[in-house]
Design a protein that fits this description.
It is built from seven helices and seven strands. The chain is of the alpha/beta class. The structure holds NADP nicotinamide-adenine-dinucleotide phosphate.
């Protein structure tokens, strides 16, 4: 299947490792030009080199939770490639913690990282997408928006807020040719999963997850918007 993204320009944040990197690689393999960011220089250079074997790539060292960074990343993509078509918003996950053990500062940090960062990215990108009447936005969240994980109260809380915002925004954007969806991973074999040591059943392959994200950002996915796509190996048991 031709995903129809050859020559499109994609911005994927938090993408030197794990699910963000896999999403960037999948888009690059489909012919999109890719801009990525992360904080650590070594892994970022490694990811840029891998992407460069498929496409034109730009790696920007940046902390995406800094409120000024989303605007600077969008500007960097447009300056380098002259346009922006696809945004995949990702950020590191918050620390573990049960609901009554997390304090205000931790909640505020999680909302900043896992809600506001995505909102800022979309807000900055939308004028460019609207200008061309075509855009794809995919927010990497978690299966915990469908089935809260008791030990990840920060993640559960921030990401469901993002879901509500995204569902609203999808309706505001669709008539402009812009789709907005959430890709919701269950347990995948990444460094994050090793760090929190919470695998829930068999682990998913990040490369497969990246291909799901690439499909959501594709031409034939034009009628999929406002959706939450679980990629969790049937782990979540609810109907919604
Ligand atoms: N893996 C899973 O099974 C799973 C399941 C559900 C949800 N998720 C969520 O999916 C997201 C990605 O998880 P992952 O497993 O791929 O994590 P990962 O393997 O730890 O990779 C995280 C990537 O994001 C970058 N990053 C982290 N914080 C950043 C920041 N503030 N600014 C810029 N880049 C940043 C990291 O690079 P630097 O550290 O160098 O910046 C790295 O490239 C997380 O939000 C996680 O909670 C993951």
């Amino acid at each position: 299947m031709d995903l129809g993204v050859t020559g499109r320009v994609a911005l994927v944040t938090a993408a030197s490792k794990g699910l963000g990197r896999a999403s960037a690689v999948a888009l690059a393999q489909e012919g999109a030009k890719v801009v990525i960011c992360a904080r650590g220089a070594e892994a970022l250079a490694d990811a840029e080199a891998e992407l460069g074997s498929y496409t034109e790539a730009l790696a920007v060292p940046a902390d995406v939770t800094d409120p000024a960074v989303p605007a600077s990343l969008v500007a960097a993509a447009v300056e380098r490639f002259g346009r922006l078509d696809i945004v995949v918003a990702n950020a590191g996950g918050p620390p573990a913690g049960r609901s009554l053990d997390v304090d205000d500062a931790q909640l505020e940090a999680a909302v900043n990282a896992n809600l506001l960062t995505s909102v800022r990215l979309v807000r900055e990108a939308v004028p460019h997408l609207r200008q061309q009447g075509w855009g794809r936005i995919c927010l990497i969240t978690s299966s915990s928006i469908k089935q809260p994980i008791p030990t990840l109260a920060l993640s559960n809380t921030a990401r469901t807020g993002l879901w509500a915002w995204a569902k609203t925004a999808a309706g505001d954007l669709f008539d402009d040719g812009i789709t907005l969806n959430l890709a919701c991973p269950g347990s995948h074999a990444t460094e994050r999963m090793k760090a929190i040591a919470l695998p829930r059943g068999p682990l998913g392959d990040p490369a497969d997850f990246g291909r799901v994200v690439a499909f959501l950002c594709s031409e034939p996915a034009k009628f999929i918007s406002g959706s939450t796509v679980l990629v969790d190996g049937a782990h979540s048991v609810g109907l919604v």
